[in-house]
Amino acid sequence: MSTQARKGKSQTRGEHRFHNPQGAEVKTRDEAFAAQRDVSAEALTVDCKLELNNGSVTFAITAKVNPNTHPFVVTGGQITSGICGAPWDITGGFIGDTIRLDAKRSGQGSCASTITVVGEFQNPPSYRGTYGFDGASSSFKHTTRYLC
After folding, report:
1. Which of 4, 13, 61, 117 gives 101 a disulfide partner, CB atoms 3.0 to 4.6 angstroms apart?
2. Of 148, 86, 95, nearest in space to 118 by CA
3. Beta-bridge mates of residue 94
4. Cα distance between residue 40 and residue 38, in whole Å
5. 14-44: b or e for each residue (b if 16 or more CB lie within 10 Å)?
6. Residue ranges of the chain with pLDDT lower than 50?
């Protein structure tokens, strides 16, 4: 191998290219890993679809979660059907080895004001647990399928 060929290889090996989280090329490693100031709230949440079944009723749930946490922190969402007074606004919770969803009624009717869903993960991907209304969380059994 000639000296010229060796120089070409070592120069290529020593050259680094850096990219920021959005995929744009930047000049330095520090720029690549610097905190991004222009990150929108949408970049910190993704929709997660769930379906709660208790044998006689099915709730359609869309939870907004922060995918950069574990367990996933629930930052919002809605229960859109299958429950009296729908829609219900999800006010908090988490999804991981266990699940907890807290929601308040935003629809019309004389239904309960809040619901709490709790459960443990099982395979195939779902949660087995209980839910209840107005402060209770163990009134009704459920299986909630993870549709994400």
Report:
1. 117
2. 95
3. 73, 100
4. 6
5. eeeeeeeeeeeeeeeeeebeeeeeeeeeeee
6. 8-12
